[in-house]
Amino acid sequence: MQHRIQQSKKNSSFLDSAKIRQAIEKKKDILIETEKNIIPYPAYFFRNKKNKIKREGLLVTWSETRIIDLIKQANTNNDRTFTFIGGKTSPRKEAGALNFPSKAVCGTNTRIIDHIRRENLSLEDVDTLIIEIPDKDNESLEPFFADIEFIISKIPSKPNIIAISSNIEKAENQLKKLSLHPQIINLSMWKKSRTENIIIETEDKKQDKSFIVSSLILAYGLKKTICYAEENLVEKIAKELTRLGIATGTILKNDVKSKIEKNVQKFSSLEIEILIIEEGQDFPPIYTTQAIIFTSPPSIKNYNQAINCLSPRTPSTFVFILSNYITDNNIEELKKKVVTDMKKENIPNIEQVISGFLGRLKEHIKEEDTEELEKYKKLFKKNIPLNMRSYVSGFMLKTILQTKDIKITPMQDIFIGAGKNRKIFPGDIKNLLISLEGVKESDIGNIRIMDNYSFAEVNETIIDKVVESLNGIEFKGKKLTVNYGKKKL
């Protein structure tokens, strides 16, 4: 039975590791620890290989499904690093493909041996061998490593071995039987997690989820985002985003393959910013996504598929899950088996939404025809008196964003007796506030750092707790004075 494995999950990227880079440059044998069922895209190991004619790389995996997934990812990224064998293609077609140049061959152990015996595949020039070791705890590795031993015997000069496994101890023991003693690179040495898993707490099931989705997209400045939504929400979310001028596409359960591929292509080329997928449809092979929004708590399968779509090269990526926490068993299952670092946030407040919307407007203005905009500007100035223009602008924002039912979080300044002279930065104040139990990022407003003191806007409902908790504590080597500032009007 084939088991699907994920690629680039949680933004795992070998590119993050100086340890791996140095080991490759020194041509050391290495054994890299990965998370179970998670193997990042391996083309990185062959990026410096220039000679496609000699074909100096070989990647061996045990899973036919892995080959199929790698083919999809290579096609999406227009990557021509590998010649693939061992998927659903027939051996005869693969033999033809092996006649064409590539930096490396990627295949299952059994199919590679088959082509070696048929003399379709020569390993004469191979100097780098990547071994993706099965991660099933209850399955013996003996047959797989017997095949690896045979493959190595067909390589004239000892290759640089790069082994990848989630079970380091078991893999190391098997490699020793082949007289290989690789340098161990543990998961913590290379994996850089940049994905924030955020639960957006909703009050009840009657809340307008299409409005919440658009608020998240505006407040967080999300561009390349996949929204995984229930059937009754797909059209509603699409209409709301289109109304706000956000290019949107949809993939429904019954869509034909050509329509799905067309929307995936548009999403990949930034022709559309948001791709809405109807619940029940599988995630397509997209690997450049900035954020995923689930309108209800996903199953482990759907979460894993979604994570696989996140870009490993984007500095910060997000997974948002809308949940009222009353009947969300899926959340507890995810926490137990997949994600341990989920944090709770409220629905973005009006200030965050408006700020994000205005940011988008400024970006669009830069792309617009200035002569065309000049006409509208003159009409606005001609018809709206100077003393009313800001009010009219505010009313237009309120109308466009339909914010009449949004509650504005009441904020009040707190005074903090530390500033620039003590090398205090806004991030220090923010982290100090978030460290308090019950304080969320949405409870914090503007932070202003002066020479000897600072001000921070805090949710009015928790200000007493904040002042009481922080006043008199030790902060950066000195006792901190914290008091109430002026109330925001």
Automatic annotation (TrEMBL):
Enzyme Commission number: 3.6.4.-
Presence of keyword ATP-binding: yes
Annotated protein name in UniProt: DEAD/DEAH box helicase
Location of the DEAD box helicase DbpA/CsdA RNA-binding domain: 414-483
Organism field: Rarispira pelagica
InterPro entries according to UniProt: DbpA/CsdA_RNA-bd_dom, Nucleotide-bd_a/b_plait_sf, P-loop_NTPase
Lineage: Bacteria, Pseudomonadati, Spirochaetota, Spirochaetia, Winmispirales
Coiled-coil residues: none
UniProt-listed Pfam families: DbpA
GO molecular function: helicase activity; hydrolase activity
Keywords: ATP-binding, Helicase, Hydrolase, Nucleotide-binding
